[in-house]
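input
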Amino acid sequence: MNFLNRSLVALVLAAAGLSAFAQEATIRKALAERYPNLPKIDEISKTPVPGLYEIRLNHSDIMYSDESGNFLIQGNLIDTRTKTDLTEERQSKLTEIDFKDLPLKDSFTIVRGNGKRKVAVFEDPNCGYCKRFERDLTKVDNVTIHVFLYPILGGDSPEKSRNIWCTKGDKGKAFLDWMTRDVMPPAATCDATALGRNLEFGKKARITGTPTLIFANGTRVPGAVGADRVEKLLADAK
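output
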């Protein structure tokens, strides 16, 4: 490529960059004027759909807009050719947590089979969905589960979490006795500051519900997913 051609390419790329910047500025201006209470926009980017832009707010909340900011869309963007939920896929990437960043010292483990696969889960003892999830999770073998007690539902959640954390026996057994058999360990006290640290970590990581699963590849999955889905996610995380 000669000097003239390189210069033309550089000019085209520069013009495209300016055009993208101007487009983003147009959308930001329109939304700021029409929706002054809209949270701060973190990023605006093109989607695979011509003329449709992704509006990212609050780190991982996603909306969509046309190129002029005249229309705002809430909902999931689906690729009908591949049956892929592009919104969910994008949010999964945005909410990933590096497994090595998890404060595993503030959790306890439940090991099944060879324990080679691993997953972390944040759970509240008063969470009905967590109980359903734990009953289903008993079908999953060859896994190490790092359980973070995460008492966010109020009531006696902190007390139940403390009793499990401070049990004189096996924390994992005490936890499963309650979650799968409704057998609560006796009242106990100890240094339970780990529970407060779990709440602080969850707040920073935007863990807003239970159960929330974190897999070895960083994938975060909220909600009581079934054993089949857990198996697939564990396989994908290798």
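quick obs: Confidence is low (pLDDT under 50) at residues 11-15.
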